[in-house]
Design a protein that fits this description.
- The chain is mainly α.
- The protein has two domains: 3-61, SP0561-like (Orthogonal Bundle); 74-250, no CATH class.
- The chain is 76% helix and 0% strand.
- The chain has helices spanning 3-6, 9-15, 19-26, 38-44, 49-61, 75-108, 114-152, 166-189, 201-252, 258-286, 290-308.
- Helix 3 runs antiparallel to helix 5 and helix 7 (114-152) runs parallel beside helix 9 (201-252).
- It is globular.
- Residues 255-272 and 285-311 have low confidence and may be disordered.
Length: 311
């Protein structure tokens, strides 16, 4: 069997970004479903593995513009790219597609009821993504940048209010999976974004825009799930090992007042536990209203300050 068929879709996408174009064309999920082997992904999509491999080989051999390998870049640079490219695009397209949906549905909705269904699905996705982007930009991304700086300078970092960074990352990955499910439902309802015969320019523009939105979101999720999160989790584990080593060293060097040495660790353990609860509660609020989400983040920051200044 071809070695490529045994690799995961994620591995192939990371080895050569040109393969993502093939995956997009064939409907193979390389972001949320990137952990499956190529053979498994082809079976799920009912595709012939040999034909897929042939398409991938052509993509590998075809000359293309040099693409940046984001695996080699610092976490802070990857985050900047995600925010300035994909987050910006997502927000702009959500704002553009709302009025376009209204126009197309008002004219064609009666004869094409699937448009009403697609509009509802997209609105749900837009609400979910708006809260999701805010959580990343206000909670997760700033902490990852501070964590990377601490590792680079070989310094310690105050424990996060959400405990291990695995907690928010797992939540982001869950929301990525949810967004991927909605995208698949939209594509199915829109007949693969193939506008019906006689569709007006606005109708065709809407479907082209939805297809482009789907492609960008796939690339966006791929960057986070497969490029950003793995090194962040590795750094988090390294800092934990370093912290545990420092704690062990401190226990061996205790002086006459052990209580004074014990107090900060207890404070931070309490801070992590309560902070994690606040974070989970804040994320539930996020899913309902972004205004309350901002309030929850203010509560989170206030808690961090109190924990840090605790006697």
């Amino acid at each position: 069997m071809n070695v490529a068929s045994e690799k995961t879709v994620r591995e192939l996408a990371l080895e050569n970004p040109a393969t993502t174009r093939v995956f997009e064309k064939l409907g193979i999920d390389y972001c949320c479903g990137g952990k499956r082997s190529l053979e498994e992904a082809c079976n799920t999509a009912k595709l012939n593995i040999d034909e897929v491999l042939e398409s991938l080989e052509k993509a590998w051999e075809a000359p293309s513009a040099v693409q940046k390998d984001w695996q080699l870049e610092p976490i802070s640079e990857v985050i900047t790219h995600i925010k300035e490219t994909h987050h910006k695009y997502t927000r702009e397209e959500i704002g553009r597609l709302g009025p376009l949906f209204a126009k197309v549905c008002s004219v064609h909705g009666e004869n094409h009821p699937e448009l009403i269904q697609i509009r509802g699905l997209f609105q749900d996705l837009a609400n979910e993504l708006s809260a999701h982007l805010m959580k990343e930009e206000m909670v997760l991304f700033p902490f990852l940048i501070r964590m990377e700086a601490a590792v680079t300078r070989k310094e310690s970092i105050a424990p996060a209010p959400f405990g291990s960074v695995q907690n928010p990352i797992s939540m982001m990955e869950y929301e990525h999976d949810s967004a991927g499910s909605v995208l698949r439902a939209i594509r199915e309802a829109a007949n693969g974004y193939s506008a019906p015969d006689g569709a007006c320019v606005s109708y065709q523009t809407l479907y082209h825009a939805l297809a482009a939105f789907e492609t960008d979101l796939h690339q966006h999720i791929h960057l986070e799930n497969n490029v950003l999160f793995p090194p962040a989790l590795a750094m988090d584990r390294a800092l934990k090992v370093q912290h545990d080593g420092n704690q062990s060293h401190c226990r061996h060097r205790r002086t006459d007042s052990p209580a004074s040495h014990d107090r900060p660790p207890r404070t931070w353990r309490l801070g992590s536990a309560v902070g994690a609860s606040l974070y989970r509660a804040g994320c539930r609020i996020f899913s309902r209203t972004s205004r309350l989400a901002v309030v929850s983040l203010h509560v989170r920051h206030a808690f961090i300050v109190c924990a840090a200044n605790a006697p």
